[in-house]
Design brief:
Elements: H1 2-5, H2 7-11, E1 24-27, E2 30-33, H3 50-59, H4 74-77, H5 82-94, H6 117-125, H7 139-149, H8 155-158, E3 181-183, E4 186-188, H9 204-213, E5 215-216, E6 220-221, H10 224-232, H11 239-249, H12 292-295, H13 306-314, H14 317-325, H15 327-330, H16 357-365, E7 367-371, E8 374-378, H17 387-401, H18 413-422, H19 424-429
Helix pairs in contact: 3-5, 7-11, 9-11, 14-17, 17-18
Length: about 425
């Protein structure tokens, strides 16, 4: 249950004791730091009773009476059953190593740092009750709904938040649930069965494979916060639990890119659905051939061909940047490796998304995750690319491997470049 709840991802840092807190989270009100949840009696939660432990998980109220900020997903943990909370408490108190690491004060200015309004916040925005199975649904659906809505707290990242930092929806019965949102500079993608923006073209097995490994060849690779979820949580889940999650995700109402919700899918055994002929973020692009011009590969043209000379002269800066920074791993044509370790850049959820954020974050901060002894690594280029170079490279990647999908809602390519430029400061600080 601790793995399903992904406690380690938020309450541990790379250079600190496990579960000793200290990880910072940027929120609209300021920087919030995760606390020490080891059984240390001075700085941790070693003095908590089961009743106090239950209250902090379900209601966001600490043992001393102060209310937690909703960076802690207590609106989701309110779904936890009594049995699972007892199991978590026993694990937390007897299996986690105590750490004397002091808690770090959150950096929230007055008057936003006052805690008492959070009690009212909890009353208004955290209405869920402990989970009870729906007798009209299958065992897989019930288990999946519990894991997604409760311990997995998927909506904390994948559901948009409102004016008070509340999740706009907490269950599939509410509009916009799991329709995608921004988190820590990354886009947490749409998890609903929408074909264009969500997982409508994924089979249940696709979802299981991605959650267990962080890699679905030809579609998606986990990076940023989702890589942490895979590394610390999902890869430890049983096949039965992963299948249950997939069953539930395929059943909820589809939410399109505009946040509009469709009908729920009937519960049942779903295999790969027939994919409508729409441009999803997973089926765009094709192998590149323009970079071969700069690689000196054999061409069916004479060396003095004027068209060839013109192409070489007019080659975009993005092509040259791609060759220098990306082609060694992803290939001159962007096809990656056959085993998917270096992913293809076409038929890719990041280059095919209308949102440029994850492409920028992957380039600037790289990708790193561990899975069953295998390390996945992409270097970060934050210190080696200027702002203009980043925009030129993204412009090339989007339009070459995403077929310009990102630009479809903008008046011109220049407008897209301005949109990218406007986001540079935010991307750089993450």
């Amino acid at each position: 249950m601790a793995r399903a709840s992904d406690c380690a991802a938020c309450h541990s840092t790379e250079d600190g004791d496990e579960y000793a807190g200290g990880l910072g989270f940027e929120t609209p009100v300021g920087e919030i730091y995760a606390t020490n949840i080891t059984p240390d009696t001075e700085h941790g939660i070693g003095n908590y009773t089961l009743e106090e432990y239950t209250r902090v998980l379900r209601e966001g109220e600490a043992a001393d009476g102060h209310n937690l900020y909703p960076a802690m997903p207590f609106p989701s943990y309110a779904r936890l059953t009594d049995e699972d909370i007892k199991a978590l408490y026993a694990w937390n108190m007897h299996e986690v190593t105590p750490s004397g690491t002091p808690n770090r004060e959150s950096e929230i200015p007055f008057p936003l740092n006052m805690r008492w309004p959070m009690a009212l916040w909890e009353e208004i925005f955290s209405p869920l009750e402990p989970w009870q199975d729906d007798p009209e649904k299958s065992a897989d659906w019930n288990r999946g709904a519990y894991l997604v809505q409760g311990p997995g707290h998927c909506g904390s990242c994948h559901t948009e938040r409102g004016f008070a930092f509340q999740e706009k929806a907490l269950t599939g019965e509410e509009e916009g649930y799991l329709g995608g949102a921004m988190i820590e500079g990354w886009r947490a993608f749409n998890l609903t069965p929408d074909h264009k923006d969500g997982l409508g073209s994924w089979s249940e097995q696709d979802i299981q494979t991605y959650l267990a490994t962080g890699n679905l060849k030809g579609k998606a690779q986990a990076g940023g916060p989702m890589a942490d979820v895979v590394e610390h949580s999902m890869r430890y889940m049983s096949e039965d639990d992963l299948r249950a999650i997939a069953v539930y995700l395929k059943s909820i109402p589809a939410v399109d890119g505009k946040g509009e919700q469709g009908e729920a899918v009937n519960d049942g055994d779903r295999k790969a659905e027939s994919e409508p002929q729409v441009a999803t973020r997973f089926n765009q692009g094709a192998p590149a051939d323009d970079v071969l011009l700069l690689r000196g590969q054999p061409l069916d043209k004479r060396p003095d061909d004027e068209d060839l000379i013109g192409q070489l002269t007019d080659a975009t800066p993005g092509v040259r940047l791609y060759l220098g920074h990306c082609a060694m791993c992803h290939g001159a044509d962007g096809a990656g490796t056959q085993d998917g370790y270096y992913p293809s850049l076409f038929h890719n959820s990041v280059t095919g998304s209308v949102y440029p954020d994850n492409l920028a974050q992957a380039i600037l901060n790289g990708v790193q995750r561990e899975n069953n002894g295998h390390s996945v690594f992409m270097p970060a280029f934050n210190d080696s690319l200027t702002d203009d170079e980043l925009i030129n490279l993204m412009d090339y990647l989007e339009n070459r491997f995403g077929e310009g999908h990102q630009s479809e809602t903008l008046a011109s390519p220049e407008a897209r470049r301005q949109q990218l430029s406007d986001k540079l400061e935010d991307w750089r600080k993450h």
